[in-house]
Amino acid sequence: MNFRFQNLLGAPYRGGNVVVSNNTLLISSVGNRISVTDLLKSQTQTLPTQSSSNIARIAVSPDGNFLLTVDDRNRCHFINLPRRIVLHRISFKKPVSAVRFSPDGALLAVGTGKLLQIWRSPGFKKDFFAFELVRTFADCDAKVTALDWSPDSNYVLAGSKDLTVRLFCLKKFDKELAALNKPFLFLGHRDSVVGAFFGVDNKTNRVCKAYTVTRDCYIFSWGYSGNEGKFEELGGEGSEPPSPGTPEKGSDGDGKADVEANVGMMVKKRKGFGDYGGNLPEDCGNLLHKGKWERLRKDNFSQAPAKLAACDYHRGLDLVVVGFSNGVFGLYQMPEFVCIHLLSISREKITTAVFNDLGNWLTFGCAKLGQLLVWEWRSESYILKQQGHYFDVNCLAYSLDSQFLATGADDNKVKVWTVSSGFCFVTFSEHTNAVTALHFMASNNCLLSASLDGTVRAWDLFRYRNFRTFTSPSSRQFVSLASDQSGEVICAGTLDSFEIFVWSMKTGRLLDILSGHEGPVHGLMFSPTNAILASSSWDKTVRLWDVFEGKGTVETFNHTHDVLTVVYRPDGKQLACSTLDGLIHFWDPIDGLLMYTIEGRRDIAGGRLMTDRRSAANSSSGKCFTNLCYSADGSYILAGGSSKFICMYDIADQVLLHRFQITHNLSLDGVLDVLNSKNMTAAGPLDLIDDDNSDVEEGIDKQTQGKLGYDLPGSMPNHGRSVIRTKCLRIAPTGRSWAAATTEGVLVYSMDESFIFDPTDLDIDVTPETVDAALSDGQPSRALILSLRLNEDTLIKKCIFAVSPVDIPAVVSSVPLRYLQRLIEAFADLLESCPYLEFILRWCQELCKTHGHSIQQNSRNLLPSLKSLQKAMARLHQDLADTCSSNEYLLRYLCSTGANK
Fold first, then answer.
1. Beta bridge partner(s), residue 640
2. Where are the beta strands (DSSP E) in 592-736?
3. Looking at residue 243, what is its pLDDT?
4. Is the pTM for the entire model greater than 0.90?
5. 517-574 pLDDT, tens per residue?
6. Closest listed residue to residue 633, CA positions, set 460, 465, 866
7. Where is 185: in which H helix or E strand?
8. CA gyration radius for the chain?
9. Which of 638-647, 848-857, 880-889 comes out lowest in average pLDDT?
10. Closest CA to 404 of 439, 378, 355, 354
11. What SS3 class is residue 88?
């Protein structure tokens, strides 16, 4: 079972900065992972690499090949973006607040604490330590907050919290020219600098101006008029650089001090530069940081009392975009400071605002809401509008064709995602309390959701509306949901009254109330083959109910501990439930016998929380499975709980097949097994002492993640530090992927067979060469069987395409039964990607004609691959139907216009 991480849904943005590569690739950080969104294809992917904690800063190289990420623990990854692998790692000594690649991609500017470091970019070098420190500037008196490179990669503009912007020259001068090593200072700001940018002359592409943006909503425009070439203007060694906007130092009235100072400066000048006769050496050229800069204007954005939180500048169009803490953004044409747009897109702080390369798209991010927007400012239209759940995801549900995934969360919202693209296409927000359970109906066009607000709602996925609401006579909190195979009966279990409510789907009337449980009913599921309903409760029982006959409880399975959840095997011949002591019990629902028991306490045992008084090995909390899910063929089961692990068990042998660790993010609690004693103080764990400044960015991890049932109202559990856990598990009906609702978001794992050599019937004569020889000899049947024995994907597809349409029936009849599953999987894959639609459908038709009886007899093992084929066909049918209908209406319109003429 080779499942690998594929994508992260439910959280497109969590904080930090966002970058745009190659004009259409939007790269953002999501916790300790990186999400890449293709704005043209409307598709998002999450890189498989993980940082040790939440990523704070990212930067992409100008050619789009390399990505630099820095996390909260100052650990940096240098990633090859096309190959999606980490090339190099480095740790900085201070927190990194800004990082930028130079325009030529050869250098990196890193603001780490008060230092500005210039590193040589590693590129594709295979050195042991590829990072090379070129220069370190220690002139700033506070944290570096903004960086920008000049077009020739020779100068860096650095803004700092000390209210100053400095212009650094990367060229290092000799001791005789030590004054040229000092930066130029842009002064006059009254708050910390948020952005500093070079402006260029479009004709010569040389720097002619600069803009600095401050947190108190001001933008300063600076003009450059070149240098005069005289050292009298530069100042000698030990003198201060010129600073426009700052008054001259006053004298004591008689001018004596000024005369002495001037004499001293003249002495230093003669001592340092006497050989050059007072003029610049020829190799220095036109030095920006020693030229004449003057402040041209100072403009206010007029958004007080809001603070400016994010900004960006586009050199080619001379445009500035700014985002404020009140959710307003503005687009201004410089240098005239003409407002083009001033709009409100959120009620929370805009934490990032970025231009793309062409300057026609604006990207905004709001960390508190998990919101990411791409807006085209000329046409005033959205290119991308995605918002994740900004509280924990509680429940999941796959559609029957595995194309859609529905999620419900504590933010009272239900979202439906397209699994292949990773995009949310509809959000339902009618619930007024946390959503606790979801269920797709058999028709695939209806979604059910249960909530703590006392309602069960039915959603129409065609018209995107709530068409039916089921309620109880008195207000109840629903925590579980189930529907029978026909879709006529809806059942929901309660948290407070311990009852199961039964409604009619057609009329919406309450049909029955099933009583008998003495604890919250957290598990509910109908048998796939008959109308028997299974329910699990904290009263240590699993009960089977005959809903249609009205007989009440048919059978009761007693346990020694509270039962947390219950699931049916897809064929309905087995029942699995987990209990509070960490056991998974497997029952025969027909005979009422206990078949197997799996002890999983040691497997699910997670890390140690910051507030735990005992070690992880001795703690009893969290050592149980809160959710279970059978595979499509019923041979293995997935189990998860309040832990960093998800366990996969083989049911027949009761052995652990695989243990997935869902995250390595140390920003979450419960990831480490052993805590460092150096972080323990007399006041408690160091990480839980709140000493943050008020102006630190509030991301999604800073919010209250608490539940009213466990904590006092308004309090933050674990001081707001999120605890890693799995709240829901679902395997796709195709069996090719599964999803887990975790603290990090919705993790999607898919079966990866691209790099695995797994032959089914290998012999010394079965080689790729013999397959090619059989094809060249005109033996397509033999070549296809040999490729199926090798189980090599490219060879199988090559042999399929080598068969002429006339020979398809003969070739299909020669395929042995044991290779049917692999052949069906190949057809499903080809339907997704290849253009020869009729050819592949012909293969599928002949396969069903020839081997229909065998497929029916072996349906349980072939079910995952058949559902994959059905999923591919359904998607193609939908695309073709949409195309045909649009063409039909277009032809009607053309015919009608021709007739009118």
1. 627, 646
2. 593-599, 625-630, 636-641, 645-650, 655-661, 680-681, 684-685, 726-731
3. 54
4. no
5. 999 999 999 998 888 999 999 999 999 998 887 666 778 999 999 999 999 998 888 9
6. 866
7. strand 184-186
8. 33
9. 848-857
10. 439
11. strand
Residue identified by tokens 């001592």 is 271
Q: 522 near 564, Cβ under 8 Å? A: yes
Assigned token pair, 812 = 């299909």
Q: pLDDT tens-digit profile of 59-91?
A: 999 999 999 999 999 999 999 998 899 999 999
Does residue 316 contact residue 197 with C-beta atoms inside 8 Å? no
Spell out the residues 6+ positions from residue 1 whose beta carbon is closer than 8 angstroms to its own. 636, 648, 657, 658, 751
Q: What is the pLDDT of residue 272?
A: 36
Instruction: Give the phi and the psi of residue 602 in degrees, each rounded to 5.
Output: -70, -30
Instruction: Work out the widest C-alpha separation in the chain, in whole angstroms.
Output: 112
pLDDT above 70 as % of the chain: 86
CB of 40 within 8 A of CB of 24?
yes
Q: Is 448 exposed, middle or buried (0-12, 13-18, 19+ CB in 10 A)?
A: buried
Contacts 24+ apart (CB under 8 A), 837-846: 837/876, 839/805, 842/805, 842/808, 843/800, 843/808, 843/812, 844/869, 844/873, 846/808, 846/809, 846/812
Residue 860: strand, helix, or coil: helix
Indicate if the pLDDT at residue 755 is higher than 80.
no
Type of residue found at 43: Q
Rounded to whole angstroms, the Cα distance separating 228 from 825 reads: 74
CA of 849: how far to CAs of 808, 809, 837, 876, in Å?
12, 9, 18, 22
Nearest to 169 by CA among 123, 214, 212, 227: 227
Range name among 113-117, 124-128, 138-142, 665-669 with the lowest pLDDT average: 124-128
Q: Do the beta carbons of residue 790 and residue 771 sit within 8 Å?
A: yes
Q: Which residue has the tokens 């004591």?
A: 252
Cβ 167 vs Cβ 288: under 8 Å: yes
Q: Is the pLDDT of residue 781 over 70?
A: yes
Residue 671: its pLDDT value, please? 83
E strands within 464-602?
A: 465-471, 478-483, 489-494, 500-504, 510-514, 521-526, 532-537, 541-546, 552-558, 563-568, 575-579, 583-588, 593-599
Rounded to whole angstroms, the Cα distance separating 532 from 526 reads 6
Q: Which residues of 674-706 are buried (b: 16+ CB within 10 A; e: fewer)?
A: ebeeeeeeeeebeebeeeeeeeeebbbbbeebb
Phi, psi of 771 (to 5 degrees): -65, -45
pLDDT at 599: 92
Torsion-angle region of 400 (φ positive above 0: left; ψ -120 to 50: alpha; else: beta):
alpha
Q: Is the pLDDT of residue 261 over 70?
A: no
pLDDT for position 229: 44
Side chain identity, residue 517: H
Looking at residue 256, the DSSP 8-state letter turns out to be H
DSSP 712-777: -TT--GGGGPPBP-EEEEEE-TTSSEEEEEETTEEEEEEE--TT----SS--TT-SHHHHHHHHHT
pLDDT tens sequence across 691-750? 555 444 444 334 433 333 344 444 445 555 788 889 999 999 888 889 999 988 899 998
For tokens 């019923």, name the residue.
634
DSSP 259-299: HHHHHHHHHHHHHHHGGGTTB--GGG-S-GGGS-EEEEEEE
Q: How far apart are CA 621 and CA 300, in angstroms?
A: 55
Q: What is the pLDDT of residue 307?
A: 93
DSSP E strands, 66-154? 66-71, 75-80, 85-91, 96-101, 107-112, 115-120, 132-137, 144-149
User: 36 forms bridges with which residues in the sheet?
Assistant: 27, 45
Distance CA 562, CA 536 (A): 9
What are the φ/ψ torsions at residue 560 (nearest 5 degrees)?
A: -90, -15
